[in-house]
Structures are given as structure tokens and as C-alpha cells.
């Protein structure tokens, strides 16, 4: 078969891709993975008993909303990176800005605190487990998003995997916030960010191999 005939045959079978296909598949991945993350938190760790009371504390909302913003920004990023030729532009700022803000808040709180209270604000009670708990709770969303990406067409696999990691990390940290007893800004700035960085790094490494055409 000649090259021109092969091209014509392939073109004849070409079908238009549905609009918003990437966003729909990734939204489906979230719809599958997020309830599993919530179930993991509930059955493995448990919702904190004073949750209703903490709803009136501003730092609880910081702890909840900062990773939730990262998750939303990660979704925007990954659905763009899942399509060839789509520019990311300034979408990375959606991931970076919440982290920078919580770092600034953590540093300010640490500097203003009495010297004898600073160590407790950094280490808290759960620093040994926080990082891995966040990564573990993020795992269902992480796996589902990579499966969805595999069925799409990312041309920058490492970046797409990192974006999927950011989305899952933000979701996992937001879910974990419903259990976590820590509220100090320095703790969040260090250990929450480290916990969220693990899926991002894993996504970049796995995506480089798994998502290559």
C-alpha cells in the first residue's frame, strides 16, 4: 500500500473528538476517586469529634481551603495538559499561589509567636505521620486521574503526571483536614505542603514512563 493510500484510509476513519472530553474523563476520575479517599479517611482515621466546633475557627478553613484551591488548579492544569497543543499559560499560578500564601502565613505566625511556643507550632502532635497520611488518602484520586490521562493525549507526560499529582494531593489534603487535629499555620506550611509534594513528584516520575505515547 502506498503512503498516500494509507493516509487517505486513516483520514477516512477519523472522527471528531467530543468537546470537553478531557475535562469529562478527569471529572469522572474525581467522582470515582474522591469518595474512596473520603471512605479511607473515615474508616482508617475517623472524622475529628469536634468538627462542628472547628467550623467556627478561621484556621480550620485555611487548612481546608488551601489544599482545595490546589486541587481545583490541578484539575485545570491536568485537563489542559491532557490535550495536544493546549497552552498552560499562567495556570500553574493556581497551584503555586496557595502554597506561597500558606508559607507566608506560617512564617508570620512563627515570627510573632513567643519563642517557647515556636517548636510546638512547627512539630505539632502528628508531624511523623501527616505527610504519609495525606499521600495515602490522595492515592485513589491519584490512580484514577492517571488512568484517565492514559486514555487521553498528553504530549508532556511528566508535567501532566505532576498536574494529576497536584490535583490528587490537594483533594487528599482537604479530605485529611477533616481528621487532622493540627491548626498551626507553620505546621501546615511545612508538613501539609510536604505531604502534597509527594503525589506531585510521584506523578511526574510515573507520568514520564506511563503516559508516553
UniProtKB/TrEMBL annotation:
The organism sits in which domain of life?
Bacteria
* Keywords associated with the record: Membrane, Transmembrane, Transmembrane helix
Q: What is the lineage of its organism?
A: Bacteria, Pseudomonadati, Pseudomonadota, Betaproteobacteria, Burkholderiales
Q: Which residues cross the membrane?
A: 26-43, 55-78, 90-111, 131-149, 158-178, 184-207
| Record flagged with keyword Transmembrane | yes
Which InterPro entries does the UniProt entry name for this protein?
A: NrsF
Per its record, how is this protein called by name?
A: DUF1109 domain-containing protein
Whether Metal-binding counts among this entry's keywords is no
Amino acid at each position: 500500500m502506498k503512503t498516500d493510500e494509507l493516509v487517505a484510509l486513516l483520514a477516512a476513519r477519523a472522527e471528531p473528538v467530543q468537546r470537553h472530553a478531557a475535562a469529562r474523563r478527569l471529572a469522572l476520575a474525581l467522582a470515582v476517586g474522591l469518595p474512596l479517599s473520603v471512605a479511607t479517611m473515615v474508616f482508617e482515621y475517623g472524622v475529628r469529634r469536634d468538627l462542628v466546633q472547628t467550623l467556627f475557627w478561621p484556621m480550620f478553613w485555611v487548612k481546608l481551603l488551601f489544599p482545595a484551591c490546589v486541587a481545583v488548579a490541578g484539575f485545570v492544569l491536568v485537563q489542559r495538559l491532557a490535550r495536544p497543543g493546549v497552552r498552560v499559560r499562567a495556570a500553574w499560578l493556581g497551584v503555586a499561589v496557595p502554597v506561597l500564601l500558606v508559607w507566608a502565613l506560617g512564617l508570620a505566625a512563627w515570627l510573632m509567636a513567643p519563642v517557647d511556643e515556636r517548636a510546638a507550632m512547627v512539630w505539632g502532635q502528628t508531624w511523623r505521620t501527616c505527610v504519609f497520611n495525606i499521600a495515602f488518602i490522595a492515592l485513589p484520586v491519584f490512580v484514577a486521574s492517571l488512568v484517565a490521562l492514559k486514555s487521553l493525549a498528553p504530549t508532556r507526560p511528566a508535567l501532566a503526571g505532576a498536574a494529576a499529582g497536584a490535583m490528587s494531593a490537594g483533594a487528599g489534603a482537604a479530605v485529611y483536614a477533616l481528621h487532622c487535629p493540627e491548626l498551626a499555620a507553620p505546621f501546615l506550611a511545612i508538613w501539609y505542603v510536604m505531604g502534597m509534594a509527594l503525589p506531585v513528584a510521584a506523578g511526574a516520575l510515573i507520568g514520564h514512563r506511563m503516559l508516553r505515547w
